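User:
I would dearly like some help making sense of a protein record. Take your time, and here it is.
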Amino acid sequence: MSTFDGVIREYNGVIVDQFCAQNCRNGQAFFLSHCHKDHMKNLTSTELTATLRSGGAKGLFCSVATRDLLQADPDFEHLRHFMVGLAVDEPVVLKLANHTDDQNAKAIDLEFTVTLIPAGHCPGSVMFLFEGPNGNVLYTGDFRVSIGETPNLSSLQTCGGSLKTIDSVYVDSTFCHPAAAHIPPRSLSRKVVLERTGRWLAKGEGHYVCVRAPTFGYEHVWMALYEEFDMPIHVSDRVYGYYSRSLPEVARCLTTDPAETRIHSCKWDSSITSSFRSYLPCGYVPSSGTPAIYRIRMSIMGFVRNNSIPTCGYVEYENSIHVVHSMHASYNEIRDLVKSLRPRAVHACVNPAVPKAVGVGCIEDVGERLKDLLCGSSSDSTSEDANSNGRNESAASLKRQASWPSRKPLHEETEPKSLLLSSVAVTASICSGSESQAHPAVMSRLGDPDEDQALPMPPKRRRRA
């Protein structure tokens, strides 16, 4: 959950992902990295609207995809004319007025360049690279970039192909702790979901799969299920309406008819009582009788809190499975990005998730864990990986809190580049904004990245006697 105050200190007047009253009064250019609610704080505030309407700010800058998402939500209709969708990997020059020239002590315009870089977190998510007289600054927002991929991000390269000098990085530190040194890639998560779904459906017509997808960013799983089994995924009328108006590539994989499929990702209906003979969230009862349900849950936070991320990528129970799935970079991936860029300073944007035995994660700890990777550090040429770095942590605090059954791991691989561009993984063009990606109303309520704080998996219902 982002705790960033929104202020890019190197460029006074640049505000990112936090639109409180003070930031709105001081801001001259506003930026939104993606559509998850912890990055949209106060986006509906009267202060932001007043600043934009007064002409005191250049606009609300974001990716084309994120702009379309916002414009499709009635809650943000009043901001429609102030949203500026920028293409990925195309530098844009901005000027901010009334900055003081230290030499002449007079007001001047501050000119700088901003470039959007794919963040690999969810559809439309981007990093912001600010370049100008006050240095080169990278704000990652929420991101997930595979180890070794940072040097391949074209906007971070010079004309000669080397990496640009980065003075400061504002980094997503959600999992900046050795307990999350390795998080299986989403490609592995999909493989596990597909394999278990196929195994269960093969048991017969009375067998159904229920996939829990509580947040915005699991569309790639729905699409993979549809392609693999030629079977649409049942969702609520509201969710289907969202995608049918915005992402037809996703909508074609969905249905509102529960009888049309044996794969459900519908929301739990609180009106259902124990008198219903269905274990499906929507309450559907097939003509064949009560279905046999296999439940699939995808999340990461609980594993980190228990210091128990399984190497195989899942923990399986009777008729259910908990699959490791993360839209945030692992500790190793965070360190790899910082090590590749070798900035002079790193600013953590999230209190890191830590094992329960450690207590509460602190922003200050992030700097300690990354300082050996900074330009000019005493261990400037370090080749130490995150696992060895983590040995300095308290052994007691890192002791495993739970014993999971061992499972044979599937083949592991890095995140494909399509996932770097969009968790929908349709095409690279979706996240870059060359296709409309409007996600409709209340998406801010769909996008809670703290998955394990979302609606819990409902308990099994008792069969009617």
About this structure: The longest strand covers residues 107-118. The chain has 14 helices and 17 strands.
